[in-house]
Design brief:
Number of domains: 3
Structural class: alpha/beta
CATH architecture of the largest domain: Alpha-Beta Complex
Shape: globular
Radius of gyration: 25 Å
CATH class of the largest domain: Alpha Beta
Distance between the termini: 23 Å
CATH topology of the largest domain: inorganic pyrophosphatase (n-terminal core)
Strand content: 15-25%
Oligomer: single chain
Number of strands: 18
Amino acid sequence: MSYRWTFAKPSREETVSLLQEQLNVPAEIARLLALRDIDSFEEAKAFFRPEVTDLHNPYLMKDMEEGACRLSAAIRNREKVIIYGDYDVDGTTAVSILYTFLKSFGLDVEYYIPHRFKEGYGINPDGIEFSIQKGADLIVSVDCGITAIEEAKYAKEKGIDLIICDHHTVGDTIPDAVAVLDPKRPDCGYPFDGLSGAGVGFKLVQGTTQKLGLPATLTDQYLDLVAISIASDIVPIVDENRMLMRRGLELINSKPRVGIQALLNIIGAKPGSITTTSIVFSIGPRINAAGRMGDATTAVELMIAEDSAQAARYASELESINKMRKSADMETMNQATEMLENEYNIDELSAMVLHNPDWHLGVIGIVASRLVDAHYRPAIMLSTVEDKIKGSARSIKGFNIYEALKECEDLLEQFGGHEFAAGLTMHRDNLDEFRQRMNAIACTSLLDNDFKPELEISGELDLGAVDLKFWKLLSQFEPFGPGNMRPIFVSRNVCIEGLPSIVGSGHLKMKIKTDNSSVFDAIGFNMHDFEPRLRNCRQDKIDVAYVLEENYWNGKRTIQMRLKDIHVNESQ
């Protein structure tokens, strides 16, 4: 798939030269800072050297006083506490943080995570009944609860206090609880509303630690789990999240907890080499696999494990579950692709709405994302559960999938989500009309050019300027993620050294240079379609879009190019 390239521009072009002079850095580095709205030496210093001591005061969050006081009382009075979480990475890391924190005081604490398919997302009556049976005095929900109006009322009727820690969008009514911690509350003055669910739980731990008069550094031990939640939940890695992510990665790379070390052993990754990318593609999916396939308990048990042998067993179990998940992914993707090829004309579809009653609910969201990547148009994958059609939707830039579902709400029993991702439930009789209407909405909303994916370029780069000094400066922009994406550069008129080749399952590999640069290894994942054209094209007419990354091989570190796109001028 080829992209249309758009070049990012700083809000003020003069900032680039100003930062270049103040910081004594190359213009390309100064431009990257300016694109992040950094326009002074002081802001650049804070960006490059974020410190945990600069974290926002937890008591700036609405209801933190009430929440920290109540949890402190539970600790002092040795009450029974239930941690109630979600089944994804964010929820399970959040549960693990609060559980481990309370256990450190010798508290009688248990956790409850609803079964993905039997109970669904959020606080439900079954979870409250579990808490009643366990004799709980307090429930602390993490990564869920902001919409649990009736459930909060029920818990209160049963004499159980409730603290809600959530980061999702707030509805018209706030649940009646002892404390409702959510930086997205309209009446919350917290300076940053981009925290993960585990991040909000961590702020409660911070506030409670302060309330108990304990050293602030006591909370640092939980930042590895916070970092995993940030990377996996795709929240913006800016502001407070950048500080939490950076310190969390340092912890994983220097002194990983027993469970994370067991997972790293399974993956074959060594502490010291873990990045945001490692979490997104290796650690996170394995933790997430348990909840995707139904029961997230194994993930929590891994993260709270204290014994190496026990942790190894849980890591092995997660690996097995993840292999099952990957197998289900592949089978579902193959079936969806075959359906598109045999039953539809993809060029006539503005939105892909596919249904198979046997598709696994835990993987259809992943497959929907892959279909979007492959065909660059909205995708809705649907399955059938107990005579109801349920599904996951993913979208592209310029098409708000939540608003599109809202236009179809007369056909839906339930839906929720945001601009790029959503979930939905409908009666099976409404499927055909829903498919037609969604396609019509997308057809009306999207122009022809919208179906060609956009690649935002940070700037043009002379490969001759790329050396270890440049790389050292560029690496200080890490950790990368939403709000601070890895820069994509363009280099023009580059030459290919030798012949390109295909490695692995369709990956393009070649060597690239310019007249004034050294030779760089370049790899383009799933870019095998370019190989025939590159063999025949004029070498001085190739423009490449790529990110720079460090490659480890046989103990040697080199800078390599990971290709994102290639523009070939084939005119002779």
